[in-house]
Structure prediction request, 425 residues.
Amino acid sequence: MCIRVDEDDPVRAMNSPRVDAPEWGAGTGWTPKQMRETMLLTQRLEDVARASGDWIWETDHRHRYTWVHGVAVGVQPPALGEPIPAGQVVNWLGEPELPLRDFHAVLDSGEPVVRLVTAERAHGQTRFVSRSAVALLNPDGSLRGYRGSARDVTQSVEAKAQLWRRDEALRRAKEQAEASSRAKSVLVSKVGHELRTPLNAIVGLAQLIQTCSTPRDKESVERWIAQIAKTGWHMVDVLDALMELGRAGAVNESPRHGPVDVVSVARHAMHIVEREAQARSIKVAFRGRSPLQAVGDRRAICQVIVNLLSNAIKYNREGGWVRLTLTQGECMKIDIQDSGPGMTEEQIGRLFRPFERLGAHQTEVKGHGLGLLICKELMASMKGSIQVSSIVGVGTTFTLLLPVPDAGAQRSVDGRSAVFDASAM
Prediction:
């Protein structure tokens, strides 16, 4: 809505400097009754504005104040001729609206303004002001200015923003809880599948043993008992992995962080997998300067290296090789490289999913698909990371990155190097 204003606008005449003259209203053609009604209407509008906490104003076409009445408490009264603040237009949460614009750009449009909120800086503080106004037009239709009201809504905007942030935090917490619940449901389902298969085998073998009572079946019974034991140990392995996964992701059971001699940890991990490497004639070499330190948990670092070495051996070719290399710079870098079949980008993207074995379950290679997920969780708990690079037909490299101690806390490096060959152990 716009208002066309004539030169003898009675409201503007009432608020001109001549309103206190005894002959006010003379020459306007108004009757005393019309004058009283106009004054009463004006007083009513002022009372309503004051009761609602608003102040009313007028500007010219250059956005300069030509009249202001009833400024809110704590707000500096503007002077006539002073431009109305060109604050940035924001929403009711105090966030800038897109596309970005200021209040003067809105007034330039000549369109009505309805509860438009702007952020304005005054005395080192940001205040939020809501304005509503209508355009005043000259007789020829050109913009003469604006007439409107304003209200300080700083408390309201800040309260709504605080409430929105609280609701947003609750919403995110709810989504995380629901995602966690879904993940647990999937985990329970997969665990049930992982355990049901060996349990069915154990029950079936036990029933076969029960049906065999003659001495000539002794060899078969012994073979079945051995299979039961093998299957039972597989179940123990699965349960241990699940318990380790739970400990790695538990907030209250994070590893103890401190300086760790990574060289000694790497040598210990290689001793653990040496029989597995010898069984497949795989040469495991180690290269690193001694001592090298990282910040983390010795047991967790050892477990990650053992898991990755074991995978590099299991999924390697017969007579292949594995190299473990330590280098230190801004962080401790542990590379575990193998001569295995390698992986595609699509396979690498599936590596850290629980129970994902990339088709290895169809082979004789043992596993439960939780080792890499455990490694990732343990590295994250030590503020480290794990990276993967691979070339199909060439091999795969897993890279562990761990923080290092401060220069003052780290022992000096003596420059010695060591080469360890697991095939000779």
Notes: Residues 154-211 form the longest helix (58 residues). Residues 351 and 372 are 7 Å apart (CA to CA). The chain has three domains: 2-152, 160-251, 254-424. Confidence is low (pLDDT under 50) at residues 10-22, 250-254, 411-425.
